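Subgroup meeting minutes
Present: P.N., E.W., G.H.
Scribe: E.W.

1. P.N. recapped why we're keeping a running log of single-chain structure predictions: easier to compare across weeks, and new members can see raw inputs and outputs side by side.
2. G.H. added today's entry (260 aa).
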Amino acid sequence: MAYSQEVLVRFRNFFIEIGELSFFAHRYFKEVFSPPFEFKELLRQCYQIGNKSLLLVGVTGFILGLVFTLQSRPTLMQFGAESWMPSMVSISIVREIGPVITALICAGRIGSGIGAELGSMRVTEQIDAMEVSGTNPFKYLVITRITAATLMLPILVIFGDAIALIGSAIVENLKGAVSYQLYFGKVFNALHFNDLIPATIKTFFFGFAIGLVGCYKGYFCKKGTVGVGEASNAAVVYSSMLLFIIDFIAVFVTDIFFEI
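Output recorded in log:
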């Protein structure tokens, strides 16, 4: 009996949190197009989210290209299909592996950073002080960070995909004596707009989800330093789960509207 009540409480809290997150997103769309616009803070957040994530995304993408090619090459050699390596790697990375891995990496860095930052501001009553002083903390803190994450993640994904393909090309050049010109020629022949457009569009939703969850968890952080840690951890976990849900929906919709 006690166990069933605990399960019901968990379900109730889950749906309550979904409702609060939906209301939080509704407030974002309601206020994002209304003045005043915090362009200076938006640019600062774009720099913090985008530029400072380039090294992490670049290293991750490079290792991804190396490992994926090294692991796939022996299997293709068994079937005498080494010539398919550039096409297979490029399509796999651009369509699915690159966007998802990059988004998960950014969820760990950006989501946790936003959650911890806003959580600390809530705990130290900086957000309350902004409200008392007449400043709209939602527009200054939340809208700028969600918008910056939405705009920057597609750029980070494209950058990560490019670095991953460079890593794959290096492996093919060393292992299979394939020239870089031939490799990238096959890559661009294999990729089509049906591969690039859906993969790029869904990264905007990835960025929005990361920024939304991070801001939500930090903005409504509970009092105390423990709450800051919980907000940071929950931002990463929830945004990661949301990324997989969005990715499934994106693949399902792409299968309907695009010929893949």
